[in-house]
Amino acid sequence: MIAKVLVQTPISAIEEIYDYKVPENLLTKINFGQLVEIPFRNRITTGLVIATEGANSVDSPAFDLKEIKRVLGDWPVIDLQTYELVKAAQVQYGGSLWQILNQAIPSVAMRFKPTTPEKITAPKLNIDQEFKGQVGDSDFQKLNGEKELNWAVIPPNGCSVTTFLQNLIVTRSKFGQVLVLVPDDKELKLLEEKLIPIFGDQLVSVNSNLNRTDKYQAHLQILGRQAAVIIGTRSATFSPISNDATVIIYDEQDESFWEKHSPGWNSRTITLLRHKCSRIIVSPSLSLEIGKLIESETFELKNYSNFKNYQWVTVDNNRNFNEVVRKGLEIGHVLVSIAEKGYANMFVCNRCRNRANCDCGGKLIINKGKHPNCNICAKEYRDWKCSYCGESRPYVLRKGADRTTEEIGKIFPKIPIHLSTGTKRIDTLKREKTNSIIIATPGAEPEADYGAVVLLDGEIQFNRTQLRADEVARLRWRKNIWQVIEGGYIYSSLPNSHQFIQDIYINNEQRYFSREISNRKIAKLPPSYGIAKITGATRDLLTFAANLREGKANLEVLVSDVREVEASTGTTPLESTVIIRFQKKFQPNVVSLLNEVNQVRMLKKKTAFSIMIDGYDLI
Question: Maximum Cα–Cα distance for the chain, whole Å?
Fold first, then answer.
């Protein structure tokens, strides 16, 4: 028998499917998706069996072929559907198939013995009646049908999002497997507590903290269709689920859903590449990529939020937030949201407070002792003037967590105050005799029923220099607002005229999508345009960029971020970053071109360029 094997090679240029002879003792063990150990050139490497054909004989083509040495593990690690998904991801993001396969499938635990329960318990699928009221009769019926759904859901505010997700998962689990992707272990643990009593041993959790054996066990359980519900972080994105499954992503624009290693795929995009499954995106704030799909009617927007019974106070009401905190403490805990430490290089106009932008669409930053420069193209502005009012004085934004805690402690000396930050995070609040004040940096806010939320440092939050700064700020603030109970109080350090505040008042996400997608298109930024970030040795990269400018009319090439990299043995050659902007329809061509460039470099024994397509940021 001949096995067709995708060989893992150090050079992607020679990553191809090769024929290998299957020895007699392995005939019953070689199937699609099986990992094997094989000889390749002068070394032993790993391969993935993707097909078998024929039988062994002296006259067969297999007679002169190299033999498979052994199988790695007793079970296949991937099915055809997931293998096709990996191939689609490679077309979208580049790199080699094995780069993505190594991220999609776990390492084989060679001494692993599977533990399969004698009898898988049937889940108790009881739906909270409140859930039916939250989504309405029509949508509840659609969720209880077998029709494929592509929904972008803004959950109801003033109640637990975790409970809403629980009811959504239970409802969809009646019609197939459910894969739930969450940003981090905090959300995973909260959801686990809700789902374990319902699904028992049919619930599988997948995250990067699992040891090798547990991760392998979980993967085989999913592949064997023994899991009704899978919950996990980014590492669960490629889980081998059935065709009738539902994939639910919570907070799909969170940075944790971007793979950091090349090729840097995104969980949302991988989910969109899946065939024959329902996709439900759930978040208080949806990304512009999802907004574009809503505009094209590929996705259907479901907005279940309502802010009729809330008290709003903004900075231009000539009132500070002390009164909001005091009233909020009467009905619940109070959350004070502040900016993260260390952001001191973004600035706005000193007079009109509008953001400073570059001609290329990037944001201007000020580094110590330097003139303003663009975070994308590095253009320097020695005589900067505000494009809105002509003012030449910048206003640099600064704030600190410790000082905010100290000031609030003086105003409310008898109230318990907790500080939650990225390094010392509070996930949930313990029951206390009195309500407390929680001061939290973005992403470290505990889940609770808040009587009030105080949103400070708005100018910092919405004027950071990252590509997705506005989307991130919207997500963080809206997640905080969504935890305020009905009748609660919301204080904003942004004025009523700010677009974010107006969008909340009107509660119309389509208006936000239309405005921001149009602005992004003019600036040639995602989601209307694709972005490729290529980093490498300056001399080689500048030559590459010059060749691109001459031969690729559909690409816009920006050279930026020339820097010296200190190495342990001295100073390495200068490195640069090239940013390529392209219309989305040309993405397959761009990815193919960049792959070819790296393949040629590796064949010439040169270091491959680091390439990221549609990464989280440009810097």
Answer: 92
**Token output for 348:** 């706005």
CB atoms inside a 10 Å sphere around CB 130: 12
Helix (H) or strand (E) holding 268: helix 267-273
Cβ atoms 589, 549 nearer than 8 A: no
Going by C-alpha positions, the residue among 296, 162, 179, 185 that lies closest to residue 249 is 179
Q: How many CB atoms lie within 10 A of CB 308?
A: 6
Per the prediction, the chain carries an average pLDDT of: 87
**123 and 290 Cβ atoms separated by less than 8 Å:** no
pLDDT, mean of residues 496-511: 90
C-beta of residue 165 within 8 angstroms of C-beta of residue 143: no
DSSP state letter for 285: S
What pLDDT is recorded for position 405? 81
β strands within 186-270, DSSP E? 203-206, 229-232, 246-250
CA geometry: angle at 98 spanning 45 and 52, to 5°?
Answer: 70
How far CA 55 is from CA of 33, 36, 37, 593, in Å, comes to: 19, 19, 20, 40
Residue 610 forms beta bridges with which residues? 535
Q: Are 436 and 414 in contact (CB under 8 A)?
A: no
Q: What is the DSSP string of 452-463?
A: EEEE--HHHHTS
- Residue 345, CA distances (Å) to 99, 354, 365, 460 in order: 36, 15, 5, 10
Q: Is pLDDT above 90 for 404?
A: no
Cα distances (Å, whole numbers) of residue 24 to 21, 38, 215, 288, 310: 9, 15, 31, 55, 73
- How remote is the C-alpha of 404 from its chain's centroid? 30
Q: What angle do CA 329, 455, 444 make, to 5 degrees?
A: 85
pLDDT (0 to 100) of residue 570:
44
Question: Hunting for tokens 């973004």 — which residue is that?
Answer: 346
Mean pLDDT of all residues in 548-562: 65
Whether pLDDT at 215 is above 80:
yes
**pLDDT score recorded for residue 553:** 58
For residues 282 and 345, which has the higher predicted lDDT (pLDDT)?
282
How far apart, in whole angstroms, are the C-alpha atoms of residue 574 and residue 552?
A: 26
Which region, left, alpha or beta, applies to residue 487 given φ > 0 means left and ψ of -120 to 50 means alpha?
Answer: left
Measure Cα distances from 493 to 175, 375, 405, 467, 503 in Å.
Answer: 45, 26, 17, 23, 15
**Segment (H or E) for 591:** helix 587-603
pLDDT at 374: 86
**CA distance linking residue 474 with residue 462, whole number of Å:** 8
Rounded Cα–Cα distance for residues 279 and 398 (Å)? 40
pLDDT value at 319 more than 80? no
pTM of model > 0.90: no
Burial 428-459 (b: 16+ CB within 10 A, else e): ebeeeeebbbbbbbbbbbbbbbbbbbbbbbbb
**Confidence at 523, pLDDT banded by 50, 70, 90:** confident
Peptide bond into 527 cis (omega under 30): yes
CB 444 within 8 A of CB 482: no
Q: What is the pLDDT of residues 139-182, one digit of tens each?
A: 999 999 999 999 999 999 998 999 999 999 999 999 999 999 99
Query: Worst-scoring range by mean pLDDT, 134-148, 288-302, 422-436, 582-596?
Result: 422-436
Peptide bond into 183 cis (omega under 30): no
